[in-house]
Design goal:
This protein is α+β, with helices and mostly antiparallel strands and 145 residues long. Helices cover 30% and strands 33% of the residues. The model has no long low-confidence stretch (mean pLDDT 88).
Length: 145
């Protein structure tokens, strides 16, 4: 094989490799945490204030996996109060697993999310609620098996 053929094979291998890399880069999926992240950044002071309010409560938010699903329990101060809010199960590696649900707590401040609603995986659970005109925010890591 002469040097001209070797040079041609080298360029052919290089061109094929570059074409493969371009193909892979076009097919890569980049999920954003939020579609409208700029507005979320402007409201971030609400998250800071809500986190400070949760830290002033006597206990923290309790999230645990049970055989029936995920059990959410708010601090004792929230029992019997009118609470409105939502919970976001954010899966950082797969946007299809994300779930944003409305809170429907019982009088004891407890809610069960069935295992059919939240799929197994690693989540960052972001809990936002309002009680008596005050906003609260809590963020927990949760792994569901």
């Amino acid at each position: 094989m002469n040097w001209g053929n070797k040079l041609f094979v080298t360029f052919l291998v290089f061109g094929t490799g570059m074409g493969y890399l371009v193909y892979r880069s076009v097919k890569t999926n980049f999920d954003l945490v939020e579609k409208d992240y700029y507005k979320s950044e402007l409201r971030y002071q609400d998250v800071i204030d809500g986190t400070n309010r949760v830290n002033q409560l006597s206990s923290s938010v309790n999230l645990e996996q049970t055989t029936d699903g995920v059990l959410l329990e708010l601090p004792v101060e929230m029992k019997g109060k009118n609470i409105a809010g939502d919970i976001w199960f954010y899966c950082d590696y797969d946007e299809k697993r994300d779930k944003r649900l409305v809170l429907a707590l019982n009088a004891d401040g407890i809610q069960l999310f069935p295992s059919t609603v939240v799929l197994p995986g690693r989540y960052i659970v972001k809990l936002t609620w309002n009680s008596e005109g005050k906003n609260y925010f809590s963020e927990k890591n949760l792994t569901i098996n």
